[in-house]
Every structure is written in C-alpha cells, then in structure tokens.
Amino acid sequence: MTASDWRKLYKQLKNKPAIARKFLKHNKPKERKIGASTKKCERCGRIGAHVGQYGLNYCRQCFREVAEEIGFKKYS
C-alpha cells in the first residue's frame, strides 16, 4: 500500500471514528527517523539525489532549476 492509497481510504472512513483509528494503527506508514526517505526535496518531494548542503534540501533536478535565483554561479 502506497502513501497515497492509505490517505484515500482514510478519507472514506472519516464518519466512522472507531474504524478509522484501527485503520490508522495498522495501515499508516511509520514515520522515519533515519534513512533515505527522511530527506525529501522541498519543491517536488523526491527522495533520491538530495542536496542538503547549506540547508537547501533540494533534489539535484530542482537545484539546477533554482541555483541562479538563490545566488549560485555556474563555473564552466
């Protein structure tokens, strides 16, 4: 079950609080404290190829798009 799947199903259970609590207990993905999935791009949400230096938290694709705007220069 992907993250979007459990959210869609949870919306259907809004009127049934007891069943919704049980559903969340067993089906919600657990919050990660370590690992690759904790570092996500702030613009698009990608997990891989993360540029975390200087507190940027962008994937490499988003960094290329906004680098000039945030003050980085391309040397070559």
Outline the structure in words.
This protein is mainly alpha-helical. It has two domains: 30 residues; 31 residues, no CATH class. Helices cover 37% and strands 5% of the residues. It contains three helices and two strands; from the N terminus they run ααββα. The protein has a two-stranded antiparallel sheet with strand order 1-2. Strand 1 and strand 2 form a beta hairpin. The longest helix is centred in the first third of the chain and has 11 residues. The chain is elongated. The N and C termini lie far apart (45 Å). The mean pLDDT is 85.
Draw up the topology in text.
Blueprint: H1 3-12, H2 17-27, E1 50-51, E2 58-59, H3 60-66
Antiparallel strand pairs: 1-2
Brief summary:
With 76 residues, the chain is mostly helical.
Radius of gyration: 18 Å
Shape: elongated
Distance between the termini: 45 Å
Cross-sheet strand order for the largest sheet: 1-2
Task: Provide the domain count.
Answer: 2
> Tally of extended strands?
2
Helix content: 25-40%
* Number of helices, counting only DSSP H or I runs of 4 residues or more: 3
Question: How do the SSEs run, as a string of H and E?
Answer: HHEEH
Mean pLDDT: 85
**Beta content:** 5-15%
Largest sheet: 2 strands, antiparallel
> What is the subunit arrangement here?
single chain
Structural class: mainly alpha
What are the salient characteristics of this protein?
elongated; mainly alpha; 76 residues; single chain; 3 helices; two-stranded antiparallel ribbon
